[in-house]
């Protein structure tokens, strides 16, 4: 009887140890896979809910999701850029820009998409009026997919050309201060109802998705 009790006690101890081990492993896995939410940058022109950079104050809202390595985003900029800049300047639209890092894998290990997107938020913090011209400058010098992309020095040079060059800004760019936030923004790109996938550029006018290939003429009707 005593031997049987000892056996049960030993088995119970083994079960308890196994249970504790299983719980510990589950807790570890949950913590490892947990995604810590990154708060939106404390920048005056960044919407704290969506993370969009907000430029202008027009009645109509043009919302854009772009990647600086994306060739289709480059086409969008070349087709729409000047009209968007004019519409922001004359008060026709409010521009909301969400820069993402979808194509980091296409920059030979330099994470160019994220670096460029982060630098845009650095510009927004330093001088909101420079956001649109800085975007235009990056697309005018857009690297091809598969290349290393622009270096930090080249990003800084383009920023200097639009009047942003403080030491704090330079540190913001080289440290990729908003890289974690950019990674989070990747999941906010709206799904294209025609494909069921998140794709860029994603363009919404007053909440309705539009095809950028239709051209910027729609802005003239606002």
Automatic annotation (TrEMBL):
Keyword Isomerase belongs to the record: yes
Transmembrane regions listed in the UniProt entry: 7-30
Keyword Isomerase found: yes
Taxonomy, superkingdom: Bacteria
Gene Ontology terms, MF aspect: isomerase activity
SUPFAM superfamilies for the chain: Thioredoxin-like
InterPro entries: Thioredoxin-like_fold, Thioredoxin-like_sf
Domain Thioredoxin-like fold: 59-211
The entry's keywords: Isomerase, Membrane, Transmembrane, Transmembrane helix
Protein name: Protein-disulfide isomerase
């Amino acid at each position: 009887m005593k031997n049987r009790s000892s056996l049960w006690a030993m088995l119970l101890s083994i079960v308890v140890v196994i249970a504790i081990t299983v719980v510990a492993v589950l807790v570890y896995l949950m913590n490892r896979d947990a995604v810590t939410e990154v708060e939106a940058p404390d920048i005056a022109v960044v919407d704290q809910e969506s993370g969009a950079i907000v430029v202008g104050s027009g009645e109509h809202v043009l919302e854009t999701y772009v990647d600086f390595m994306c060739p289709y985003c480059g086409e969008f900029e070349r087709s729409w850029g000047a009209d968007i800049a004019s519409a922001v300047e004359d008060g026709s639209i409010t521009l909301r820009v969400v820069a993402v890092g979808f194509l980091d894998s296409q920059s030979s290990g330099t994470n160019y998409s994220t670096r460029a997107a982060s630098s845009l938020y650095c510009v927004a913090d330093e001088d909101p009026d420079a956001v649109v011209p800085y975007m235009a400058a990056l697309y005018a010098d857009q690297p091809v997919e598969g290349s290393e992309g622009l270096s930090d020095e080249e990003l800084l040079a383009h920023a200097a050309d639009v009047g942003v060059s403080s030491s704090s800004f330079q540190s913001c760019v080289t440290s990729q201060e908003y890289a974690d936030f950019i990674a989070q923004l990747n999941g906010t790109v709206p799904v294209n109802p025609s494909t069921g996938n998140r794709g860029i550029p994603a363009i919404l006018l007053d909440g309705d998705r539009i095809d950028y290939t239709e051209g910027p003429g729609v802005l003239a009707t606002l």
